[in-house]
Amino acid sequence: MKPHETTMDAGALKRPRRWHILVFLLPALIVYTAVMILPLIETLRQSFYNTVDGQYGFVGLSNFKVLFGDPRWAADFWNALRNNFVFFLIHMVVQNPIGIALAAMLSIPKLRFSAFYRTWIFLPTLLSFVIVGFIWKLILSPIWGVAPFLMDLVGLKWLFAPWLGRPDSALIAVSLISVWQYVGIPMMLIYAALLNIPDEVIEAAELDGVTGWSQFWKIKLPLILPAIGIISILTFVGNFNAFDLIYTVQGALAGPDKSTDILGTLLYRTFFGFQLQLGDRSMGATIAAIMFLIILAGVSLYLFAIQRRMRRYQF
Amino acid sequence: MTRTTIKGLLLASSILGSAGLAHAQDVTLTIESWRNDDLAIWQEKLIPAFEAKNPGIKVVFSPSAPTEYNAALNAKLDAGSAGDLITCRPFDPSLEVYNRKHLADLTSLPGMENFSDVAKSAWTTDDGKSTFCVPMASVIHGFIYNKDAFDQLKLSVPTTEEEFFAVLEKIKADGNYIPMAMGTKDLWEAATMGYQNIGPAYWKGEEGRLALIKGEQKLTDEPWVEPYRVIAKWKDYLGDGFEAQTYPDSQNLFTLGRAAIYPAGSWEITGFNTQAQFKMGAFPPPVKKAGDTCYISDHTDIGIGLNAKSPNAEAGKTFLTWVASPEFAEIYANALPGFFSLNSTAVKMTDPLAQEFVSWREKCKSTIRSTYQILSRGTPNLENETWLESANVINGTDTPEVAAKKLQDGLDSWFKPAK
């Protein structure tokens, strides 16, 4: 039994104009335009404006020149971008494989209480990032934390360190907190994809002697690849827009020594200001514009280069 | 919670709505503030005292979170939805608000004569011509210590740098107490409670601060690097995992009696008085050698101004005149021991810890935090950078010399001293 590749049937049939589609789309379109598209355009516009000698006006690309040309702005920006990539990579190599593994385990038919596990693993995703940040700050606190206490019980206290306060471990710690919170999303999506694989395919594989691990690698994994692609792109967009968790756990200065500063926190500090630092809307908008371009590039790469080549199967 | 509040409001408005009609002339003033800790004091003491004397004016205190205050306030002012009275941060954040014509000029406000020029400096334009906020209070830096612990270990209060470290060493050797409660996680503790606390003794207070603004001294000069060398030595006396210790952690460590010394600002007094179960004392930042003049950071921290677009400007001015009066100073200073009145009239305070702090004004020279006036106007922001580097120095990420160089380079990139 060979799966067929889908072929899109270009509708050759002439149909009457379906106005109701437009009518139904309109409310969403209006709301989306008002709260997303217009602010986005306004932000992009602002990135080309700045105050020069007290006069607010069009300055062309000079904001971008400052961002990339001025050694301090550039250092801050590249530092944030690099941290952001680390943040994303940790999600890709930890969160998504664990999500896939959890989904694979949940879809074992013999597993008992699977609904229970599913709910509990998904639960942190529903929590507010403020709560998650606060809980983990307490868990990892070297003074009252549960982590040093529990590690002490099993004689591993020497392994404990004030991870959130060290420049070399803070970013990893914060990324893992985020992974803990969001691992439910890849799990759910993959789980749904796995359930979509028809039993006949699995049975046929078993008849051919493909079972266990090799069944997962050779049959199931190729079938859930599109779902993995979607998850990757969701992770990418989510991570490059991230801000909230870092802000609640490490504060707006994203310490220590800017080691957890990602584009979102840099944007926040620049745009809104912090403590004695006054907000700089033009530079903030410039950073926002770059973030938009990065995300746009990533999504385009996925849509045009990867998704098109991906084989889809229909049963 | 929100829902019950809304229900309560609806209920209140339905019942009291008719009562409100009788006072149709009433003016309601709203105060914007970052001091959400002070909500109770405003509602229970200050506002009733004012309203009793000024029938027809109602006052609502509406604070927001400290870290979001500046950004939220600017957004509200731009949108025209800010309150009538604006609590002023010292120096540039407020000056900027004034320059954008959001704060009214209060130079001629009755009651302004109760304040010295130094008290008004934080809310006066660079040319000294206009004052736009009524000074409310300053905070003094120093160290609060656990008296019981000191008695138990037979320690005396240190006055010099050497004695200070000797005391820390003894507490550490004893092992019952963490010598000093401070963390670097929140960054600002290291800068505000560390560098700005002990620093004035090395850069000689106002002398060094003004020399820095005039460009006669640099942050890489010895008086500015040495305090960094001193706080770098603090590292050994902080609690386990101080790198991840937050500000509330430090407060709790001290008030629970687990730490002996707390590098403090006087604003802690109210909280510590209610939390701590032991006797507390305070000592000023130690001097370098016995006999040296001591310097304290007596930082003008909080003022209050009038929204230039307020429809209730007259009532607002009445309120501000009252804020400038000795009566307000006395209620405020006693309700919030640790926030010291800037009023020229001496205020009687009952809290012993607050008395101790304020007594240093007589024997030591006062200054304000070095980064606040003018020097934090550009990008990179010197205050934020100082937070970062102070934490780096204590964490050992940067040496004092490297930290000072980074700060000076940052400052040089935009700051041109007025010659």
TrEMBL record, chain A:
GO cellular component terms, A-Z: plasma membrane
Spans traversing the lipid bilayer: 21-41, 85-108, 172-194, 223-247, 284-305
Membrane topology, from the record: Multi-pass membrane protein
Keywords noted in UniProt: Cell membrane, Membrane, Transmembrane, Transmembrane helix, Transport
Organism of provenance: Rhizobium fredii
PROSITE patterns: ABC_TM1
Record-given protein name: ABC transporter permease subunit
Residues in ABC transmembrane type-1 domain copies: 81-305
Domain of life where this protein originates: Bacteria
Residue ranges of coiled coil: none
Key word Cell membrane present: yes
UniProt xrefs under Pfam families: BPD_transp_1 (PF00528)
Compartmental location: Cell membrane
Family: Belongs to the binding-protein-dependent transport system permease family.
Biological processes per GO annotation: transmembrane transport
UniProt-listed Gene3D superfamilies: MetI-like (1.10.3720.10)
From TrEMBL, chain B:
Keywords attached to this entry: Periplasm, Signal, Sugar transport, Transport
A Pfam family reported for this protein in Swiss-Prot or TrEMBL: SBP_bac_1
InterPro entries, per the entry: Bact_solute-bd_prot1, SBP
Taxonomic superkingdom: Bacteria
Residues of the signal peptide: 1-24
GO cellular component, one term: periplasmic space
Family according to the record: Belongs to the bacterial solute-binding protein 1 family.
Function: Part of a binding-protein-dependent transport system for a sugar.
Protein name: Probable sugar-binding periplasmic protein
Species, as recorded: Rhizobium fredii
